[in-house]
Amino acid sequence: MTPQTDTFMPSYTLNCRMAHEAAALERLCQVIRTRGFRIVRMAVESAGESLDIALTLEGTRPIAMLQSQLEKLHTVAEVDSGQTSAIRSRSA
Amino acid sequence: MNGAEHILDAFHRHQIDTVFGYPGGCIMPLYDALVDDVTVAHVLCRHEQGCALAADGYARASGRLGVCIATSGPGATNLITGVANAHRDSVPMLVITGQVPLGLIGTDAFQETDVLGMTLGIVKHSYLVTDARDIGAVMEEAIGLAGSGRPGPVWVDIPKDVLLQDAPATLFPADEESAAECPDLNPAMDLLRAARKPLLYSGGGVGLARCEDGFRQFAECAALPAVVTLKGIGNPGKHNPDNLGMLGMHGSRAANRAVDACDLLLVIGARLDDRATGNLKEFAPNARMIHIDTDQAEINKVRQADVALRGDLAGILAELTAAVRAHPLEIDDWRQQCRLWRTTGGFSAADNEEPLAPITGPAFVRQLSHIAPDDTMIACDVGQHQMWVAQHYEFDHPRHHLTSGGLGTMGFGLPAAIGAQFADRQSTVINVTGDGSFMMNAQELATIRRYRLPLKIIVLDNQCLGMVRQQQELFYNNRESQIDLDDNPDFVAMARAFDIPALHINRTDQIRRGIETILAYKGPMLLHVAIAREENVWPIVKPGAGNREMLDETHRPSTSNKEQIA
User: Fold this and answer.
1) What's the 3-state SS for B152-208?
2) Is B110 an active-site residue?
3) Which of A21, B193, B204, B293 is the most buried (most CB within 10 A)?
4) pLDDT number for residue A87
């Protein structure tokens, strides 16, 4: 087993509004994962034909890169980034 | 009008007259509707992967939307490699699949797969249509999305009962095209004028934006030394004296050297792919960068741009051309230096003077380039032959070079050539392939025969997976593992079994005659070219290394070190 090491993992919040269509959340989560981020918290609320999604994410890559990838999704209407902080986490 | 007829209605609205597909259970309503349709030509390939790759080749060659169709389950999963290929190379594609009836979704029904879920990462967008009344609007949106902005594949999955469901016809007013605003070019022009060693770096985005002519005008007007990515080959034109060729892992010494020495990169329609940049930390270490792209997400993705311009490429190029025409760049010393590097470090392959000598891949490709007509489209597969074509074939237009750049899909070439030949029945289309790649979609020989496509197939046969063997030789201590293909079938006999004539050559003095023979033949023909097993692609940069660390033949380990474990 790989020993666990302490690392500082930048944490971000993103608020996202997207169309409430088939596989909407899977589509969002898939981009977050493949672009190198981990979902720490996710709150989803249905708002008519839309979904409002509040995300807390961790990742070492620039959050702007993820934001622009999410904005490319056809059904994503809006992505707002919140405040950035650095939290201590344990990673393998 | 039922759901299937709504699909055909959308094809008619958008002048889609050629589609590539394979029927099966859940897509049968669409195939039933096709029986009465006289405007849409359906090309029956012999495997769904062939359908998707043929649609891809059709789109690359024509600049139009490629369309492929398959049934649910294995039909859909067989499409996936071809769709991923289109996604990675930003090829406009519409994918239509049947799905099990609505009530059976989620019951593990026969030929049910979660197509929407399993394809999320390889599409620009996707739909599961659950009401026939939505099909018209979904098709409209899907077709628009696939071709707009940065193009890509859009997948529409439709349950069988929805295809059969009646729905009223809908009117779709034609979209009014809005003129794109040109961004402020002054910051870019300031950087360009301040640079002493600027370098033009272009990629596949030029062809995708269909602004090949505008790019050519700018390149000639600015007389900037130019390098290209694999997908940008042909952008500057083969007669441009400032064209240094492809950069990167198998790039020319001239191109990689110019990137290393330049003080400004003007990147147009390229995404700074790792095969092009090598180790990013060592890439263009002295250069500032202007990045022009239609996709905002590509800007600053892997390297921060000093100036970024996002917008309509044609408009930006026109403005840039006007600016450099009014005030030419003063870079004579740099231009002369690059032209010297081009002479001493361009791609060169000696034509073997010894008539009985074995054929080498580079020498063959150079002769092919000299003999084939100017408008020839070359559809490559993936491997050593692909790099020899990229290095030694002199393309004068990016649409003449069909290659799987991002995904690197072995088996791409033959179906892509089929698609290209459907896109232009008059052009010469040649699939240049290797023995490994050829066997991956060889079933499409039957498609060539069925439609009597006059395309030519050239198999460069080294009896092994040459690119893997090369990397095992250079980077894995010469330990060969699972690369032997010396039990290949007789390719000449195989082609003839599909009623396609074929020739075999293995000597240098047979090259010209072999090429001329297949080009002169009116129908499809295969040329089997035996080449040496040990031949490598030079130069090569070790994956992960900087482009300065190009290796050549002098770096070959001794063959006595070989430890064969295959």
Assistant:
1) CEEEEEEEHHHHHCECCCCCCCCCCCCCCCCCCCHHHHHHHHHCCCEEEEECCHHHH
2) yes
3) B204
4) 41
